[in-house]
Write a structure and sequence with these properties.
The chain is 28% helix and 25% strand. It is of the alpha/beta class and 512 residues long. It folds into three domains: 157 residues, ANL, N-terminal domain (Rossmann fold); 125 residues, Roll (Luciferase, domain 3), CATH 2.30.38; 105 residues, GMP Synthetase, Chain A, domain 3, CATH 3.30.300. Strand 3, helix 3 and strand 4 form a beta-alpha-beta unit. The longest helix is centred in the N-terminal third of the chain and has 17 residues. The structure holds malonyl-coenzyme A and adenosine monophosphate. The site of malonyl-coenzyme A (MLC) has 21 residues, from helix 6 and strand 13.
Length: 512
């Protein structure tokens, strides 16, 4: 395919976040961008070239600024280029977890109404019927759909308030909602993070996170792009493979499961970390024991930060000065955080309450869902996070619980309601309660406690069969327990706290 004309929408960049990356890349054109197994795949000059051609391809096939592009793709250099090309072309990027099943995808497509769906061959996205254009994304740059495009386009003008991406996050009702993030949200957050974490000109990022969530996409990838840093690119997290690259890296980011898996590797030593200057953890609580063991084994204090899809990064432990185990640090510069008690009053020092926040990082709302957007904001514009937090005298925040019914397993969010709805539809089930209990690898493990309907026959295999077809693997219960009835309080409400206590040793004991 040859695209000969430049799009009329393409004018010099303004607040397009890609303009920041373009400026850094232009100043370091010869620097490696993605390196895999010690082999440079692309340098920053090639990043500019490829994204320009991929953006021209998007325009040529009819994707105009503001159009949505849904992507369910394996992590690959081509997938990174496609993401950057969407930013560059002014399209709204919508990444989907590669674990999502066909039935889960149908909802996203009907809600997002994308102009284009791109999916890796073999993933459910490649088999979903959808009336927009549909292309399979090749895993290599050489076979990407824009391979024959010769033209490139300049960065499309976007204002800070224009949408750059929509990230779907599940809800307590069991229905996903799309968080609309703007170019301004993405730019402001990466600039703040680069400064807070003292990003250096000679940094090398080891990237092993998925790129369909905020952590891998907007935190890890963006920090490297802002400084044109080389990225040691891992298509998935494999502890042994990651360790092999440690000597060449200076920065590593992961969910707590990454750190517990690294610590389980006998080959993980202080000597391997000699060049490393920063380990960042987030997306789920880091156990004090993991923090302490890491200090002992690696000689490094992991820097824990706190964020969420709707607001990107909100707080961070300090780069200089002590990093406090169990705390996520003070709010990042420019972000206003308050903790509010049940009666709507500001919490005193040490008193728990719901964390609310406001700032240039905060999303504009849920896609086509003004009711939910209004429900999750206060009258004065603060976002109600649903996390319970405390603050100490020094302003350091601890996340001590959740007001929302949410399980975080290996850094992925599982909304019990969605799993319960799937299980409740199985013949022979009266009702179910899905809970998270301590898990040695995933932090929390999903457990389904299922009440059999009176007189019905029901086996664990029936539950496994239904969830396997309908739910992504990470959402499926790691254990299902069939009972005659669920515990209820006097008001008739299912007592999840009682169930969590009853089954708290389910995985810990098994793995001991
Ligand atoms: C995989 N499985 C999981 C799982 N990941 N089950 C529960 N929780 C998870 N997180 C399933 C697999 O499908 C498989 O199922 C079985 O568990 C064993 O798989 P595995 O080989 O051990 O898993 P692996 O592929 O190694 O993946 C584990 C992982 C991965 C930890 C590397 O989950 C991961 O990369 N997590 C990072 C999540 C993340 O990026 N979160 C950021 C969200 S952004 P089966 O059935 O096949 O046996 C956010 C904002 C912020 O929260 O603050 O950052
Ligand atoms: P997500 O919707 O995937 O962006 O997940 C956001 C949620 O992850 C937050 O609301 C928190 O509950 C949780 N989270 C993120 N970082 C941390 C952290 N460092 N400690 C505890 N919980 C965290």
């Amino acid at each position: 395919m040859v695209v000969s004309s430049e799009s009329s929408d393409a004018t010099p960049a303004s607040d397009n976040v890609f303009a920041l990356f373009e400026a850094a890349a232009s100043a370091h054109r010869d620097r490696p961008f993605l390196i895999s197994n010690g082999k440079p795949l692309l340098d920053y000059a090639a990043m500019l070239e490829e994204t320009g051609r991929a953006a021209a391809w998007l325009h040529a096939i009819g994707v105009t600024p503001g159009d949505r592009v849904v992507v369910q793709a394996h992590k690959s250099p081509a997938a990174v280029i496609l993401y950057l090309a969407c930013l560059r072309a002014g399209a709204v990027f919508i990444p989907l977890n590669t674990a999502y099943q066909r039935s889960e995808l149908s909802y996203f497509l009907s809600d997002a109404e994308p102009r284009l769906l791109v999916a890796s061959a073999g993933l459910p996205g490649a088999a979903v019927a959808f009336e927009g254009a549909r292309i399979e994304l090749a895993e290599t740059i050489e076979a990407a759909p824009w391979v024959d495009v010769t033209a490139t386009i300049p960065v499309v003008q976007r204002s800070a308030a224009d949408a750059a991406a929509i990230l779907y996050t599940s809800g307590t009702t069991g229905r996903s909602k799309g968080a609309v993030l703007t170019h301004g949200n993405l730019s402001s957050n990466v600039i703040v993070l680069g400064q807070a974490w003292r990003w250096r000109d000679d940094d090398v990022l080891l990237h092993a996170l998925p790129i369909f969530h905020a952590h891998g996409l907007f935190v890890a990838l963006h920090c490297a792009l802002l400084y044109a840093s080389p990225i040691l690119f891992h298509e998935r997290f494999d502890a042994a493979a990651v360790l092999r690259d440690f000597r060449s890296a200076t920065v590593f980011m992961g969910v707590p499961t990454f750190y517990t898996r690294l610590l389980a590797e006998p080959a993980f030593t202080r000597e391997l970390c000699a060049r490393m200057r920063l380990f960042v953890s987030g997306s789920a609580p880091l156990l004090d024991a993991t923090f302490a063991e890491f200090v002992e084994r690696a000689g490094h204090s992991i820097l824990e930060r706190y964020g969420m899809t709707e607001a990107l990064m909100i707080t961070s432990n300090p780069y200089d000065g002590p990093r406090v185990a169990g705390s996520v640090g003070p709010p990042l510069p420019g972000i206003s955080v308050r903790i509010v008690t049940e009666d709507g009053k500001p919490a005193a020092v040490g008193q728990p309450g719901v964390l609310e926040l406001k700032g240039p990082n905060l999303f504009t709302g849920y896609w086509r869902n003004p009711e939910k957007t209004a429900q999750d904001h206060t009258a004065d514009g603060y976002f109600i996070s649903g996390d319970i937090a405390t603050r100490d005298e020094a302003g350091f925040i601890r996340i001590v619980g959740r007001a929302k019914d949410l399980i975080i397993s290996g850094g992925y969010n599982v909304y019990p309601k969605e799993v319960e709805m799937t299980i409740d539809a199985i013949e022979g089930v009266a009702e179910s309660a899905v809970i998270g209990v301590p898990h040695p690898d995933f932090g929390e493990g999903v457990v389904a406690v299922v009440a059999r309907a009176a007189g019905a026959t029901l086996a664990v295999d029936d539950i496994t069969a239904a969830v396997t077809v309908q739910l992504a693997a990470f959402k499926r219960p790691k254990a299902s327990i069939i009972v005659d009835e669920l515990p209820r309080n006097a008001m008739g409400k299912v007592q999840k706290a009682e169930l969590r206590d009853k089954y708290k040793d389910l995985f810990i004991r098994r793995s001991a």
